[in-house]
Write a structure and sequence with these properties.
SH3 type barrels, 9% helix, mainly beta, 5-stranded antiparallel β-sheet
Length: 75
């Protein structure tokens, strides 16, 4: 049976994830949707700055070709 990363990502919908992009941008948010190109929509997203403070971003869209990784965060 072949591994299907898109199906796996879709099972994470509604869960809180950490996303890193090619430019080093890291953000946490609730995975709202994933399309066939692995473009993501995150709701309630926020970024933790170097000093530990949190910066709220709200709804965020990430283009699939810019993703390095997506990690499920503990709830």
């Amino acid at each position: 049976m072949a591994f299907d990363p898109l199906s796996l990502l879709k099972t994470l919908t509604g869960k809180t994830v950490l996303v890193r992009t090619q430019d080093g941008f890291e953000v946490e948010g609730k995975l709202a949707s994933v399309d066939e190109y692995m473009n993501l929509s995150l709701s309630d997203s926020e970024r933790t700055l170097e000093d530990g403070s949190k910066f709220k971003l709200g709804t965020l869209h990430v283009k699939g070709e810019n993703l390095i990784f997506i990690s499920l965060l503990s709830s």
